């Protein structure tokens, strides 16, 4: 790592109201379409094809682990289809001087307690976020464990975006969980 590079970790957690089942909360995290739309800067997204070297049938966790350099502690679901789902995401980033669209490549991996996401953005920004639903003191909570790697020059901006957005993203997820768990 160069002296111009920086790393930051942040953990954000929100309580999930009683009446929501853990399996429903995890299933909602596995709904990537819904999750992508929770980002307040989301402009558009599309699914990208798998790299040729990962298109083995059935999809192999070992191949995905090697090609995508997944963390050793990540235990992806083994099921039909790709282990890593890849998206191109366009976010509209407002700025007081100019606004811009930022195009990122995002890799999603579902696991038993939630999902893991790696975002590759311009200027060498890489964020890895482990989303999970865990039990704490007899209740459920939504946990977002974020690792940011980027230049020291942009770390403040990236950290600021995470800090400004996490509460709203958690609220949208929890609101949908409550709505879906309420009897009609």
Report what the structure shows:
InterPro entries: DUF7053 (IPR055481). This protein has 184 residues and is α+β, with helices and mostly antiparallel strands. The chain has a single domain (5-181), classed as Alpha-D-Glucose-1,6-Bisphosphate, Chain A, domain 4 (2-Layer Sandwich). Helix content is 28%, strand content 40%. It is built from 4 helices and 7 strands, in the order βααβαβββββα. The chain has a 7-stranded antiparallel beta sheet with strand order 1-7-6-5-4-3-2. The radius of gyration is 17 Å and the shape is globular.
Concise structural overview:
The protein is α+β, with helices and mostly antiparallel strands and 184 residues long. It is 28% helix and 40% strand. A seven-stranded antiparallel beta sheet has the order 1-7-6-5-4-3-2.
How are the SSEs placed, and which strands pair?
Elements: E1 5-16, H1 22-29, H2 32-37, E2 42-48, H3 61-68, E3 85-93, E4 100-111, E5 114-121, E6 125-136, E7 139-151, H4 152-181
Helix pairs in contact: 1-4
Protein name: DUF7053 domain-containing protein
Pfam families: DUF7053 (PF23155)
InterPro entries: DUF7053
